[in-house]
């Protein structure tokens, strides 16, 4: 596998390609990392995907590169800003991909782990050129996730006024894939989640997949793998089934 770093405007990308024939057109996957990490953290999964014949682009999320990295405390505090801005930057990656590799292409594949899975869900709602998407222990129920992670904060000194929180929630709803399932538009979605995840709650993922399965429009388009006894870590099963999903026609 060939690995190189590329700066695109103000974001860093790690680009992973097969050793041979890397100039030829290839399906390309943009894959996002979790909070506190960098694109290179996803190299083990990228290796598997490259071995399967894909080009993989690993972006550093906003405020996560060495040049703009915030403390973990600050990253957590600005979490919803980070996922929003990072999802917006995908449009620049897509245009750069067209200009550099595939002028006639009309789609990308996208995936992510944890925070990266949440960014993936936002991107699916916003960008119709995403053909297939994979979420590993992320959530598409962004509004519910906001309430989940702020529940304990509200018992103490909550940093937002009621008006500020209302404005934030109004914006979060515009990013929330689960608020408008029609934006999926019959695209294939892979979801993996450990059942004892104590960071991103499994029950939100299960609710979302059940909502999709109850709609006749999305039957056959949702590939859901739940793993008993697994917490907030990507297992071998998760990586293998994610690769199989992207490889499937």
What can you tell me about this protein's structure?
This protein is α/β, with parallel strands linked by helices. It has one domain: Rossmann fold, CATH 3.40.50. Helix content is 38%, strand content 20%. The chain contains 9 helices and 8 strands. Strands 1-2-4-3-5-6-7-8 form an 8-stranded mixed sheet, sandwiched between helices.
Layout: helices, strands, pairs:
Elements: E1 2-8, E2 11-17, E3 28-32, H1 43-51, E4 55-59, H2 72-77, H3 79-88, H4 90-100, E5 108-113, H5 115-126, E6 130-136, H6 142-150, H7 162-175, E7 188-194, H8 202-213, E8 222-227, H9 236-247
Parallel strand pairs: 3-4, 3-5, 5-6, 6-7, 7-8
Antiparallel strand pairs: 1-2, 2-4
InterPro entries: AB_hydrolase_fold (IPR029058), FrsA_esterase (IPR050261), Peptidase_S9_cat (IPR001375)
Protein name: Peptidase S9 prolyl oligopeptidase catalytic domain-containing protein
Pfam families: Peptidase_S9 (PF00326)
* Distance between the first and last residues' Cα: 23 Å
Low-confidence stretches: none
Number of strands: 8
Give me the number of helical elements. 9
**Multimerization status:** single chain
Q: What is the typical, i.e. mean, pLDDT?
A: 91
Helix and strand sequence = EEEHEHHHEHEHHEHEH
Overall shape? globular
CATH topology: Rossmann fold
CATH level 4 superfamily = Alpha/Beta hydrolase fold, catalytic domain
Organism: Halolactibacillus alkaliphilus
Protein name: Peptidase S9 prolyl oligopeptidase catalytic domain-containing protein
GO molecular function: carboxylic ester hydrolase activity
Domain Peptidase S9 prolyl oligopeptidase catalytic: 92-235
């Amino acid at each position: 596998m060939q690995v190189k770093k590329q700066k695109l405007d103000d974001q860093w990308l790690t680009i992973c390609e097969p050793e041979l024939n890397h100039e030829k057109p290839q399906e390309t996957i943009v894959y996002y990392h979790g909070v506190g990490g960098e694109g290179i953290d996803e190299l083990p999964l990228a290796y598997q995907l490259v071995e399967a014949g894909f080009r993989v682009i690993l972006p550093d999320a906003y405020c996560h590169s060495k040049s703009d990295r915030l403390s973990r405390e600050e990253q957590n505090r600005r979490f919803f800003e980070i996922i929003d801005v990072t999802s917006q930057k995908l449009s620049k990656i897509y245009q750069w991909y067209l200009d550099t590799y595939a002028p006639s292409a009309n789609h990308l594949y996208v995936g992510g782990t944890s925070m990266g899975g949440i960014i993936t869900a936002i991107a699916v709602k916003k960008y119709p050129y995403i053909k297939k998407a994979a979420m590993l222990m992320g959530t598409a129920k962004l509004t519910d996730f906001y309430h989940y992670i702020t529940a304990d904060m509200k018992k103490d000194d909550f940093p937002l006024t009621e008006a500020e929180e209302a404005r934030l929630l109004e914006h979060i709803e515009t990013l929330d894939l689960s608020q408008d399932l029609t934006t999926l538009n019959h695209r294939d979605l892979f979801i993996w989640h450990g059942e004892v995840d104590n960071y991103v709650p499994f029950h939100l993922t299960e609710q979302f997949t059940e909502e999709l399965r109850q709609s006749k429009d999305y039957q056959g388009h949702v590939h859901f793998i739940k793993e008993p006894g697994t917490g907030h870590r990507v297992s071998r099963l998760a990586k293998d089934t994610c690769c199989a999903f992207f490889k499937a026609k």
